[in-house]
Amino acid sequence: MTDYLALAQSVVQQAADHGVEVEAIITHDAETQIKVSGGEVEQLSQASSRGLGVRVIDGGRTGYAYTSDFSADSIERTWRAARDLARVATADEYRALPELTPISDEDLEIWDARLPDVPATDKIDLLKRVERATLDYDPRIILADFCNYGDSINHVYLANSRGFAGQYGRTTVFSYLMGIARGEDGGMVNAFGMGASNFFDELDPVAIGREAGEKAISILGGKPVETQTATIVLDHVVGAEILSALAQALSAGDWQRKRSFLLDRLGQQVGSDMVTLMDNGRLKRGIASAPFDGEGVATSATRLIDEGVLQNLMYDSYSASKDGKTSSGNAQRAGHRSLPRLGPSNFYMQPGHLTRDEIIKGVDRGLYVISVMQTGGIDPISGDCSMGANGLWIENGEIVGPVGGVTIATTLNDFLQNVSQVGGDLRFIPMFGVIGVPTLRIDNVTIGGTK
Amino acid sequence: MIDKALAQKVLAEALRTGADLAEIYVEDVESLRLGMDDSRVETAMRGEDRGAGIRVFFGNLVTYAFTDSLDEQSLIDSARAAAAAGTGSSSQTRIDLTERKSPLEYPVLKPFDTLSIEDKVQLLSQMDEHARAYNPQIVQVSASYDQLRRHMWLFNSDGLQVEDERFYTEIRGGVVARRNGTLQQVRDGFGGRVGLELLDQNDAIAEIESMCETAVKMLDARPCPAGEMTVVMCNGWGGVLFHEACGHQMEADFITKGSSAYAGKIGERVANPIITAIDDGTIPGRRGSLKFDDDGTPAQRTVLIEKGILKEYMWDLVEARRVGRDGSTGNGRRESYRHMPMPRMTNTFIDQGEHDPQEIIESVKRGVYIANMAGGQADIAKGDFVFNATVAYLIEDGKLTAPVRGATIFGNGPQVLNEIDMVGNDLALDPGKGMCGKGQAARVSVGQPTVRIPRVTVGGTDDASA
Fold it and tell me: Which fold has domain A4-216?
């Protein structure tokens, strides 16, 4: 077994002896992916891979190169390429490797020691149960599509010329599928079910399968309502999609580039007092948790919006030195092929106490939104937010029937101001980053449908 | 990358447990990315990726293993891992590989090394300077240059041996205009399966100035009215609507599962007879063009819809085998050796129509003209789509009038295809910026002439008209 941390350190040593700063990351991953259809395994993919990425900072100029080839020649070619590329980059006085920070050895509970030994047959069985739970939910479910299981065992080794050397292992497992339902009129709808955890045993196949079945059946036969202004109640998946845009608007890097609808409003009330938004890279059993971030800074918990008041932003070392702050440990790394990039870790809205049913009961007239479709429909710069929606219509606290083919439109600003109730049912959705959201009630939203 | 003798040995190993077909896909990739943001070269990045994926077919079960080491032991180990699901045995120990050549040529007129890295950086600086000089309201500018060489080799136990060395060059730009509290972002780009001749055939500076012009104009945009109305979609990039809302539903994986609205409809009328739609992986210089797809099938031109009649789906090898079809349509594509291929589009477009585009706009009393979109999303089961227009104008009494912001069009792909009642004579493919995501990224082109959709739901933030 190669000592990858020692290898990363030796790359740093070789490349650094010309007065430049160097960081080397080595990732070594093993992953399994399975796809099941109609109770049969359709795809089974297993692989392990590794890679080296070298970042050189030469007088504030950054060059980057990576390779998957660990031969001595290739490693040397890679750090040399990074050094050469640094010469064409623009010098930036704030660009430097971060100061050493103490890394706590607290157990974040992100390593499932059992996962490497779980046989593929157990994973296949789990996935077949996911599929069956969707199909068994209702005879109108005609298909469980994209029925996938995946897991990964990741090892990260990071070293830099300031003396940082660290490593950690993290496991993740996930499963998702799409339930497709057909009504008597032949109309079809679909909905996702999903689950993710650091631990194999925590994945609940029946819950994942049922979610897809239940959601698809509930919106079957939905028709547009009249265009109007009403209350909406957001399911977790929908709330997560909106929160992912808020996460971008709360990144210091986007502020420094003047790309946030919240720009220059630090210390101000930007949302209702129900809104508390957190980013926590040290969350126990957080899918995005790690002891240090993508450039070796200790991760932390940051209160971004506290009861509606904008308090803090997320920082990496670069944006922090620009603003005279300290990094919040938010440099993310998508493997050895990319530079550290400022972004959320486990980003979530602090839950309240209400159940989903209690929230729905309080709505006179509105839409419980179960699924949305959008791309670029939530703009963290202008704050504009517009999406196609499916869900259930609520009248006097009761669900009266499915709705489809409508659009919901608001702005992120109004969204934050109009959050009037927050559920106690916090759930992390790993689709748009790792975003945690409870059921939310939002008032005064334009619903576009028929005249 | 690997020689014939080694390929034969690895294939024999992969077949040993009784597979019907085994395949080795080898890839060697080199990339360079330069990115300027905030007038600074912030991204200067080179990458090398080399590896192989071994795919083994046992009836409808497909197993896959990949490795980033191309030595004999690693390849044999991967072949064994992929073969492990088999319980039978094979007597086929000798595989005769015959190299197949493509008649298609995608010549690179100017190799990547004909410009230095410094020259490439210089181009981005010029884009940045011109954009900033264009108007004081332009507050942010970004520009990027990408070059990619992706060389693939494929060997399979049917004796197939092919290779395809693909070169791509891309330029992207983004500007943000700001006036008082209003911000407007515009992004665009161009590229293709070409070398640096791309930079002679396109004027990067004129392109970014045009983005600035649009962003400044859009600062005056008012909220888009909501409700049902007539929508005219621009030519070229407007074809992304067909790609998302109809094209994906013609991909064979959605057909064989029966989840697509087009399943079982070959020979039936699925669109207005003025609509002909084509997927063509053989167009010179385009992002979706291939010699061979990533199953080793030659690229081809496939008429999907002819005068409103559904003619064909887009097949990859797995789906073609599933239904016993003789070969695929050359639509099997994968993101890298770490991925299995799946049915994907190449260059997909609605074909030329008869109307003058001006005549189409003049025909609309009240509606919205969509000039650019951020991309979109479609629901495969229902064919419902949502598209967010980044640049749109009101049409009033046959004329383009005020710019509008926040316009979202919402509808059903197959239904819209039946309803489109005017197709322009200005067919164009997009400038070469399309990246399709279906679990894996794939370079694609989209295209269409100007089209008119007589009635579609438009979502906006102004419900005054409702």
Answer: PmbA/TldD fold (3.30.2290)
